[in-house]
Design brief:
By secondary structure, the chain is of the alpha+beta class. Helix content is 47%, strand content 12%.
């Protein structure tokens, strides 16, 4: 019996060495960007202010971010740029990627994605417009971010709907009854469900005004 355990340990150690060797062979050039990540749907309004990093805490979020960065070799998973060559900020940012069921009102956390500053802000264009209105971002950078994202999509043969079109799409679902009611929405992380941060849309609007 002891001899069997010893062989198992040796075999496991050998397997770990192989996996380590395979990891060291990976290069930045091996990373294949996925421009479709820039087509992430807008987070439904009932889910504003609630996210995996909020409900699971800082240590979980930091571990999740670092795992995403290491997996992508510190490259943007959308445009492919390495952090050292990224625009504006030479580091990667973590973005929570979701699978959203608008009819049932479920926002399923899938994984954390490694993104450059420009691609991350392109996805959150609603927040980006808000920063511009509040004079917290220069107009030149605002335009550069949108142009960057549009080019990444165009190079991949993709195009994103305008903000107005996306808002209209959600409003249409609300009118024809295919959009879950506010109180039905849940964030789902690792099989556990979390309630919206605000109980009603009015409560959320009042909170945004105070912010």
């Amino acid at each position: 019996m002891p001899r069997y355990r010893k062989k198992t340990t040796e075999a496991s150690g050998f397997a770990l060495k192989i996996r380590k060797k395979e990891r060291t062979k990976r290069r930045v050039s091996d990373i294949v960007p996925d421009a479709s990540l820039l087509l992430c749907p807008n987070v439904p309004k009932p889910m504003h202010g609630i996210a995996p990093r909020v409900v699971l805490g800082g240590p979980w979020w930091e571990a999740e971010r670092q795992a995403a960065f290491k997996s992508s070799l510190w490259c943007c998973e959308a445009c492919g740029v390495h952090k050292e060559k990224a625009k504006a900020r030479q580091w990667m940012e973590g973005h929570e990627f979701y699978d959203i069921d608008y009819l049932e009102g479920k926002m399923f956390y899938v994984r954390t994605v490694s993104l450059c500053h420009y691609c991350h802000n392109f996805i959150h264009d609603g927040r980006l417009h808000g920063l511009l209105r509040q004079n917290k971002i220069h107009h030149g950078k605002f335009v550069a971010i949108l142009q960057h994202g549009d080019k990444v999509l165009a190079d991949a043969g993709l195009q994103r709907m305008s903000r107005r079109a996306r808002d209209t799409f959600v409003e249409t679902m609300k009118q024809n009854g295919t959009l879950a009611l506010w109180h039905a929405w849940r964030l789902v992380v690792e099989g556990k469900e979390y309630l919206p941060r605000y109980r009603t849309e009015q409560e959320a609007d009042e909170a945004y005004k105070r912010a």
